[in-house]
Amino acid sequence: MASSFPYTPTTPQKTVNPRPWVLFSPREGRVEVPILPSKPRTGNLLDIHYDISTHIILAASPRVTPNTPVPKSPPRSLKRAEGDIRKLGLELMEKQVEQGEDGYFSVTNEKLLWNCVNRYARKDQGGNARTKRITLFLVHAAGFPKEIWEITLCHLLAACSVIDEIWSWESVQHGDAALLNRQNLSGSFDWTDNARDIANFLINYMPEEVEKSALPIQLHRLHASIGESRQQNGFSFRTLVVAGHLFGGCSAALAALNFPAMFSSMIYINAMIDTYLGRVWEDTQLFVGATLLRREHWPSRGDALRSFRSSPMLSAWHYDVIRLYVEYGLYEDGSGSVRLKTPPVHEALVLANPRASRETWELLERLDENIELLWVVPGRNGVDVSTAQQFFAEHVWRRPANTSNIIIESSGHLIPQESPEELAHIMADFLHRKYCVSSRQSKL
Fold first, then answer.
1. Residue among 201, 139, 141, 148 at smallest CA distance from 169
2. Which of 172, 311, 345, 414 has its Cα between 20 and 30 A from that of 229?
3. Alpha-carbon Rg for the chain in angstroms
4. For residues 209 and 128, what is the distance between their CA atoms, to the nearest angstrom?
5. Average pLDDT of the residues of the chain
6. Residue 47: which pLDDT band, with cuts at 50, 70 and 90?
7. If 0-12 CB within 10 Å is exposed, 13-18 middle and 19+ buried, where does residue 386 land?
């Protein structure tokens, strides 16, 4: 039987003075549409029952993130002491704080950026009596491409027939989006911009209905009246369920805080919504430093696969997820080698600036209670049991109303990578209960 945390009130904290939401506006003038950096999908995991396509949209403009130089990556060494790695991380984190205090984050940045999304549309749309189709929107953690969810999706779609369409998001410095944006990425990143990009997609680009026909690579911006209606009344023909992991969970929560009418329910998979005090701040220093030093290129995908399988960090991953990461998280760099699509320095910049996470923590108790929340949290945490229990218990009850939580005892913080099947069944059970649709068992 699944375990969960009983109600636990959160410890009062001093305000971090959350910043007001920054509006975005349509980009004026003609924009040249880039070529997708990856080939169209064929013969992959979900295409028996779901058509797969990749699309791009213009990211929100202007940016909250300032336009600053990208820092140089430090020399990689296998012999660095933990203290040196932690120092590297702390230096980058302090630089991000310094930029905020110096007012850099108030400088307008209008550099052109793109977001990528994968669409998984059910082929058989007939025979469904629901007036509003269920749409699942997925938001990845820092460091992973939009395809990282596909093992979870295989198990989810075999167990649940509620979902008509899935959109898998990619932040501007991740995956294929990183390849499109590599010349325009900044030397810092404010998570607020990922939330603004998500809101921009949901308000201005997600099609009105689940289309049976193919969609263009660059999705068309909808009429302003549709976007205005969505902000006030939600979707006319969709019921939106969002699942976000770590950084992605926080970004989605911040979008929902500002546009609650669009969201029906949210699944926070170990969402990184936190005060970043004490141990979390200290642990993040090590994560940031280690990310800066991460290896990013290999002679071939085969070499990368062998390297990943022997890595202590990836040893707990499901093998099929590692294969997905090799296939969709790397690209051929033109020299005969393969390289991470998401540069480690840009992943480190995401991890190094948790200001929006602190703000979201403070604001989360105000999230519209009509949005049902399910927290999925890890049971294997690498810290003493009492510390972990207090940490997660306070998180999952930050907004007490209309909230539940489930602990995956066998998993660490990378739940979709380590326990995709168990996560899928938790999501299927939640969707079945919430939307009163019979589950089914079938093979893709």
1. 139
2. 172
3. 21
4. 14
5. 91
6. low
7. exposed
Q: What average pLDDT score do residues 196-206 get?
A: 98
- Residue-wise DSSP of 113-143: -EEEEEEEEES--TT---SSEEEEEEEPPTT
Residue appearing with tokens 């913080």: 413
Residue 298, SS3 per DSSP: strand
Q: What is the pTM of this model?
A: 0.95
- Of the pLDDT bands very low, low, confident and very high (cuts 50, 70, 90), residue 355 is very high
Rounded to whole angstroms, the Cα distance separating 212 from 51 reads 10
Cα separation, 250 vs 359, in Å, equals: 10
A 10 A CB-CB count for 257 gives 20
Per-residue model confidence as pLDDT tens digits over 54-67: 999 999 999 999 88
* Burial class for 27, CB neighbours closer than 10 Å (0-12, 13-18, 19+): middle
On the question of pLDDT at 383 being above 90, the answer is no
Q: SS3 for 439?
A: strand
Cα separation values, 363 from 7, 20, 274, Å: 19, 11, 11
Say how far apart CA 413 and CA 312 lie, in whole Å. Answer: 15
Q: What's the CA gap between 205 and 9, in Å, rounded? A: 38
Cis peptide before 416 (omega within 30 of 0): no
